[in-house]
Design a protein that fits this description.
Pfam family, one: TusA
Shape: globular
CATH class: Alpha Beta
Family: Belongs to the sulfur carrier protein TusA family.
Order of helices and strands: EHEHEE
Protein name: SirA family protein
Number of domains: 1
Number of helices: 2
CATH topology: Translation Initiation Factor IF3
Helix content: 25-40%
Largest sheet: 4 strands, mixed
InterPro entries: TusA-like (IPR001455), TusA-like_sf (IPR036868)
Structural class: alpha+beta
Length: 75
């Protein structure tokens, strides 16, 4: 998937991946896509909840070897 900005939150635990995602999105234009990599398993439900609450779109999620990759489109 194409993305405009990438952020690696590997090794960070809740709530830091969400807080860092919010900050990363604030520097982006509407319609741009953020790629986020996290290792906290709680990020799976947290990212969906964050997207629902903020109106940003969670375009997809992939899991591989304990790492979770999310693609979020800024509203």
């Amino acid at each position: 998937m194409n993305f405009d900005k990438e952020f690696d939150a590997s090794g960070l635990s809740c709530p830091l991946p969400i807080l860092k995602t919010k900050k990363a999105l604030s520097d982006m234009a509407s319609g741009q896509v953020l790629k986020l990599v996290a290792t906290d398993c709680g990020a799976v439900k947290d990212m969906q909840a964050f997207a629902d609450q903020t109106g940003n779109s969670l375009l997809g999620m992939e899991e591989a070897s304990g790492s979770y990759t999310f693609y979020m489109k800024k509203k």
